[in-house]
């Protein structure tokens, strides 16, 4: 599948690996949030143009902070946190207690004493799903190659933290399609 990726899309995947391999976010598995972080770092691509057109260019740090906060909550979306609160489960209290006992980032897997890991970085199920969806998005738009814009569109289609954070910042599939393809590109790939 990667032979169909443009240079920009390949750079997003490489950037996601860089986040996992130690830049900011830690872990050993590439997740959709890492793909989003790599997209935020891009400049001069269709995906970065779309994000800037939707006003996210100057709010990148806000997105990064929202992703960090979700990671601290063990990857739960705000909607999941709210649903648990409705059941009487205070996720923030649980996070505080776990971090008090085991250190900051314990639920996120960001603890610095995890030097035992010697395996290769791999794609998590969510990241694989996003990359597969990016192919379907490209095909639905009748594009021959998968660009970083297709990865961005796929992130908005997959329920989870990345889609929620993007939506909270005004970036939805429909808005992106309008910016990237005009009013005629409404094909949706699920």
Briefly say what this structure is:
This protein is mostly helical and 190 residues long.
What features would you describe in this structure?
This is ATP-dependent Clp protease ATP-binding subunit ClpA. Keywords: ATP-binding, Hydrolase, Nucleotide-binding, Protease, Repeat. Residues 2-186 form the Clp R domain. The protein is an all-alpha fold and 190 residues long. The protein has one domain (2-184): Double Clp-N motif. The protein has helices spanning 7-20, 32-41, 46-53, 60-72, 78-86, 91-102, 125-140, 148-157, 161-168, 173-181, and strands spanning 29-30, 122-123. It has a two-stranded parallel sheet. Helix 8 (148-157) packs antiparallel against helix 10. The longest helix is centred in the last third of the chain and has 16 residues, at 125-140.
Largest sheet: 2 strands, parallel
Strand content: under 5%
The largest sheet has its strands arranged as 1-2
Count of the domains: 1
CATH class: Mainly Alpha
- Average pLDDT reading: 83
H/E series, N to C?
HEHHHHHEHHHH
Briefly note the structural class of the backbone: mainly alpha
CATH fold-level topology: Double Clp-N motif
GO molecular function: ATP binding; peptidase activity
Domain Clp R: 2-186
Organism: Streptomyces collinus
InterPro entries: Clp_N_dom_sf (IPR036628), Clp_R_N (IPR004176)
Write the layout of secondary structure elements.
Blueprint: H1 7-20, E1 29-30, H2 32-41, H3 46-53, H4 60-72, H5 78-86, H6 91-102, E2 122-123, H7 125-140, H8 148-157, H9 161-168, H10 173-181
Parallel strand pairs: 1-2
Helix pairs in contact: 1-2, 1-8, 2-7, 2-8, 3-8, 4-9, 7-8, 8-10
